[in-house]
Amino acid sequence: MLALAGSALAATALAATALAATAFGAGAAAGSGPRVEARSADLLAVGLVQGDRMSIHLSRVLDNAPLRDAVVNVVLRGETHATVAEADGSYTLVAKDLTLTGAAAIEFQVTQEQLHENLKGVLQVASPTPAPDDRSNSRQMWWWALNFGVCIGFLVLISRRKKSAQS
Length: 167
Description:
The protein is an alpha+beta fold and 167 residues long. It has two helices and nine strands, in the order H-E-E-E-E-E-E-E-E-E-H. The radius of gyration is 27 Å and the shape is elongated.
């Protein structure tokens, strides 16, 4: 009986360690890049930046339908950049200027048949944050695993005392 309770305690501690590792790993990956929004009376442009690449989603304000088959140029830091239309209806811009820190005025120049719109916004790129200290994350994960193990141990001891008191 004692060996069975010990193996259950070990399995529970191992599961708690895996759960804590998953939770800490998911929190580190949840960060996203800068975002810019620009709108006019008819259109909304949302740009999501990851490194030197911006994914631009254009939609009509009236019905939120994506604007496809348009020619989109982006004016960033005084330079005009052409975008590439993607199969999903978005547009992609690749430019080294997207990696520069600070605020930058951005203008989306959209042309589709008779439609000519200039949407203006501000892109705010924060300076890169230093990588978190891996030792402290590991230390905290083991601390949580130890606490889970101790709590499970106390619950096992309490249940044994109740069973022995009933016998």
